[in-house]
Structures are given as structure tokens and as C-alpha cells.
Amino acid sequence: MPAENIPPSIFHMLEKNVGRKLLVVLSQTYGFEGTLAAITHDPPGIWLSNAEAVIFRTTIANPLPQIAGREDRSEIFLNLSAVQRIEVLHQG
User: Fold this and answer.
1) Could you read off the pLDDT of 1-20 as tens digits, one per residue?
2) Which of 25, 47, 57, 81 could crosslink 37 through cysteines, CB 3.0-4.6 Å?
3) 3-state SS, one letter per residue, for the chain
């Protein structure tokens, strides 16, 4: 997805959440969890620090995706064209 097709509101939402913990879903089975460190406009993407790769699993008994595994990734850049969903995680 070219940068011209990404609405400015996405960048505004992300800029408000710099420093907060995010869950970024790339597919039904894979994503990343980490702290939003930076946002780039060209290419459109985000940098996560203290990141972990997460694997989602569903079962017939529980069709909602649950995190089944984690793997440390340190820092990672994610292009927004590959992202399906971004969730801001609240610290409890």
C-alpha cells in the first residue's frame, strides 16, 4: 500500500501512542507486541522496541485467537501495508 493511500488519521493515532505498548497483528496466526518507538511516513511504518513475536492459536472450543507463543525480537520495523490490526494495550 503506497503512502498516499494511508489516511493521515492513522499517523495521528499512532503519534498519540508513542511510548505505549502495542499488539500489531500481521495475520491470523502471527503478530508482534512491543513499545511504539517511532513512526515513519516514507516508507509508512512503525518501529517497535522491546518487541516480541507472538503466535496466535484458535481451537473449536475457543474460536477467539489466543497468544500461544512468544519469541524475543528486540527492535523491529513493520511496514503498515502488512498490518491487519493495531491494538493499544493498557497497563494494568
Assistant:
1) 455 677 778 889 999 999 99
2) 47
3) CCHHHCCHHHHHHHHHCCCCEEEEECCCCEEEEEEEEEEEECCEEEEEEEEEEEEEECCCCCCCCEEEEEEEEEEEEEEHHHCCEEEECCCC
